Amino acid sequence: MKIEIKRFEELNTTELYAILRLRSEVFVVEQNCVYQDIDAKDEKALHLLGTNKGELAAYTRIFKAGDYAEKASIGRVVVDPGHRGHGYGYEIMKASLKAVKENIKEDEVEVSAQTYLKDFYNSLGFSEVGEGYLEDGIPHIRMLAAL
């Protein structure tokens, strides 16, 4: 999988469409969760696009501290259903952690993790902080990792 990091203004319309389509396919349709995905935060984020054979296979967006959460953060972590089972989730997250360290210059990062993915995030160095909560009707937990 090839991973690129782009600022919002560097995304072309085809890339932006693929990102929004994938996020909608997984977070709205697959997870049956009606929420406002286009949240006016994309313009502040760095976008990590993982492509395989020209198709968007995995994606995250990262923020510096204060632009989305208290700490630097990684969000909208998603792997295309047709590309699952190849370790792309780990690849895009490892690249995202590296991007926070190198591009945003932060030593700690947080995620608002869907609770069922807690072990996945633990394997990447994240630890749970506080109690679980509902976000858009889905159980989540705040997790932090030192970089």
From TrEMBL:
CDD domains: NAT_SF
Keyword list, A-Z: Transferase
Xref: InterPro entries: Acyl_CoA_acyltransferase, GNAT_dom
Location of the N-acetyltransferase domain: 3-147
Record flagged with keyword Ribosomal protein: no
GO molecular-function terms, A-Z: acyltransferase activity, transferring groups other than amino-acyl groups
Protein name (Swiss-Prot/TrEMBL): GNAT family N-acetyltransferase
Naturally occurring in which organism (per UniProt): Poritiphilus flavus
